[in-house]
Design goal:
Number of strands: 2
Largest sheet: 2 strands, antiparallel
Helix content: 40-55%
Strand content: under 5%
Distance between the termini: 61 Å
Radius of gyration: 19 Å
Number of helices: 11
Structural class: mainly alpha
């Protein structure tokens, strides 16, 4: 069967090159993140067509929700006022950390739930114990710390999904959306990362003023321990509070 393709062109090729450069990625790194060979990636940057089954990988590599010009069906347009009625809008985040924080959690949690479900659907069709590192393409594996890769199974993602729903319920109820565990710190961080691409694509920075930075998450956490312990190449022993075995233990803001 002939594979469907997205017609390449000079403008798309230029945007792919610029985005890769903006993210500081080499061709080899971008190709690896996309799950394609370096020669294939070079063809994309030369304006050749992209197979439809490879588009998700290209978008993952470049932190895009969709290829430029292919946004139909993706929610790149939104009204800030309408989002304030979203079920996951947090008045606490808005009041304490600004509109960008509340918007990021509302948008990002929607996107994260979709991506978690996509990976869960694929893992459900694989042998028990399979993990996201075995998936051809996953939007989630690029977020999670590499030390525990083989533990990111269907059950692990299911628990993350349940925790995210719980946080959305707290947001809707107007309760303080503090991150009480490492898992909740991770979920808030993922939501910010997921939302940043959509906010960028929408071009609606003007609606949220100058709040274009994702640094609000560290103001929420009160520190940057998450980055220091999980994303700096450290090896964590089982007794370390940021080790996977402690991710769901209430540790922060418990007074």
């Amino acid at each position: 069967m002939t594979q469907k393709t997205i017609q390449g062109n000079a403008d798309l090729a230029k945007q792919i090159r610029l985005r890769r450069s903006e993210l500081g990625l080499t061709i080899e790194e971008a190709a690896s993140r996309a799950g394609v060979g370096t020669k294939t990636w070079c063809r994309y940057e030369a304006g050749e067509s992209i197979r439809s089954d490879k588009c998700k990988g290209v978008c993952k590599a470049l932190n895009w929700l969709s290829l430029p010009g292919q946004e139909a069906g993706t929610p790149t347009e939104f009204s800030l006022e309408e989002y304030k009625d979203h079920e996951a809008w947090s008045r606490f985040l808005e009041d304490e950390f600004g509109t960008r924080a509340a918007l990021s959690f509302a948008i990002g949690s929607d996107l994260l739930l979709d991506h978690l479900q996509e990976d869960m659907d694929e893992l459900a069709a694989m042998p028990a114990g399979s993990h996201i590192g075995q998936l051809e393409i996953s939007f989630i594996d690029g977020f999670l710390p590499r030390q525990f890769l083989m533990h990111y199974t269907y059950e692990f993602l299911y628990r993350m999904k349940c925790s995210l729903y719980s946080m959305r319920t707290r947001a809707q109820s107007g309760l303080p959306l503090r991150a009480h565990s490492v898992a909740e710190e991770l979920l808030v961080t993922f939501c910010e990362q997921e939302a940043s691409a959509l906010i960028e694509l929408s071009g609606k920075f003007y609606e949220i003023g100058d709040e274009t930075s994702g640094d609000w998450i560290f103001d929420l956490f009160g520190d940057s321990d998450l980055l220091q312990f999980l994303y700096s190449g450290m090896y964590l022993e089982p007794d370390h509070p940021y080790h996977l075995s402690h991710w769901y233990e209430p540790q922060f803001y418990m007074e």
